[in-house]
Every structure is written in C-alpha cells, then in structure tokens.
Write a structure and sequence with these properties.
Helices cover 75% and strands 0% of the residues. It has helices spanning 6-24, 33-48, 53-57, 66-96, 112-146, 150-166, 172-192, 197-216. Helix 5 runs antiparallel to helix 8.
C-alpha cells in the first residue's frame, strides 16, 4: 500500500464531516442534497489528487462505451430488479413482518408527467449522486485507508452499504434492509468491475427507472 500523506488524510476527514453535517445537521434536507454533496466531493478530490478528481472516484474513460452502459448495465439492472421482486422484498417482509413503504411515491401512479420529472431527479440524485458519494468516494476512501484484503472489502461493503440503507429511512425498516442488500450488490459489482463508477451509475439509474415505471403502472 502506498504511503498516505497528510493531505490524503485531512481532506477526506473534512469531507466526511461535511457529509455528516449535510445529512444529520440542523439544515433541512432537500432533493438536491446528494448533488451538492457530490460537487463538494469532486472539489475535495480535486485538491487531494492534484487536479484529477474524476479518475480517483472511478470514472474510467476506457470503460465509457455503449456496450457497457446501454447493454450490459441495463441487463444487470433487470437481473437485480427481478431478484429484488421475487426474493429480496418478500424475504425481508417475511423477516420484519412489515411491508416496504412506497407511500412517498404513491402520487406517481398514473401520472406520466410527474413520473418523468422524478425520473430525471432520480438519475441525478440517486444514479449519479448516491454512486459518487457511497461508491466513488466512501468505498474508494475505505480501500485507500484499509486496503483490499477480503476482510477489508467485506467490511467496506457491509458498513458503507449499511449507511446507504439507513439513509432510506422513509421506506421503513423493511425498505432500509432491502436497500442495504441492493446497495451491497451494487458495491460488489463496483469492486468486481475494478471500481468502474460509470457502470454502477448506469445500473443504479436503470434499476430505479424500472422501479418508477412499476409504480406508475400500479405494479408496486
């Protein structure tokens, strides 16, 4: 492991403190919170990595192509969604005895205009925002500090996706646990794809697209 400099220690710690303040501080949360945090992360990475913020997050130019983003990523998203519907949600609902709470999105049913607006917001705040925060920044920083041993990667995925699940408290305990599992699958893909952030952004975005249209058609 390369020696970690003072710059590479202080800047991530300050950034993490800002993230915690944004999520848990006295300021009101907004739909654009993840976008704001993502911009802060990019600025912090620009300082930490001396003008190369995007490659440090996992934005790999060589893997930015139609095959990965428009064929493989949607197929992976469909596979995860099928697993989500037939196994994860029923299994967690049986475990907790509480149905997953989709009430915050109930207004989307039959409303195409609102669904499209939500789709754009979800791609920006969840597809890009959450992946930059939880995979590109937090996972990569964990690897930087604790390495890539099997134990380290396992703890990395469990802890960070646990935080990811916790941040979906509006879906109730079942939604939090389900999101934890989905987040862990995406995190595992991120690791197996050698930290290809473009790919997991696409997977996350297409997964949410399928979910939103299921709600629109009254299937959720």
């Amino acid at each position: 492991m390369n020696k970690i400099t003072l710059r590479q220690t202080l800047i991530p710690l300050i950034t993490m403190a800002i993230i915690c303040f944004m999520y848990f501080g006295p300021i009101n949360r907004t739909p654009f919170e993840n976008i704001i945090i993502s911009i802060i992360i990019i600025i912090a990475n620009y300082i930490e990595y001396k003008g190369k913020p995007f490659s440090a997050l996992g934005f790999q130019r060589a893997k930015f192509n139609a095959k990965n983003l428009l064929i493989l990523a949607p197929l992976v998203a469909i596979a995860i969604f099928v697993f989500y519907v037939i196994a994860i949600v029923p299994g967690i609902e049986m475990l907790t005895g509480v149905p997953i709470d989709y009430s915050s999105m109930s207004q989307l049913e039959g409303n195409l205009q609102l669904t499209i607006v939500w789709l754009l917001l979800v791609w920006a705040t969840a597809g890009f925002g959450e992946e930059i925060i939880f995979r590109g920044f937090l996972m990569r920083q964990f690897v930087k500090f604790f390495g890539e041993s099997k134990i380290s990667i396992a703890l990395n995925i469990i802890l960070i996706t646990g935080f990811f699940g916790f941040m979906h408290s509006h879906q109730g305990i079942t939604g939090q646990l389900v999101t934890w599992i989905i987040g862990a699958l995406i995190a595992l893909i991120f690791y197996l794809r050698k930290y290809d952030l473009w790919f997991v952004i696409a997977v996350h975005g297409f997964f949410n697209t399928i979910a939103l249209f299921c709600i629109y058609f009254g299937l959720a």
